[in-house]
Design goal:
The chain is mainly alpha-helical. Helix content is 63%, strand content 0%.
Length: 104
Amino acid sequence: GKEQTFSKEAALTNMTMLFLASATFALPTVLFNAESMNAYSPEDKHHVVLSASRWCSIYIMSAYVAFLIFQLGTHAEMFKGEDGEEDDGDAASLSPACATLLLF
């Protein structure tokens, strides 16, 4: 069989992205349940949590775009195998335009 190898730096980058995603998903819940939020009226509390949730989503979207630029552009060699080649898997069966359309 084929022995798999991976880049330690690529794994750390992916783990950092997972941590950021988890933190931004958890932050509005933690904020909503914080003891200091009890001083606000329910309407104000909802507004503060909604605002924090929106800022978290903007932050995670910008981090994801930066990660794509990092992974596919500036540091693409870091995400390749040790022999410098991509995975030996099948060739892409979708055009980039079709794949982009399917995302939406």
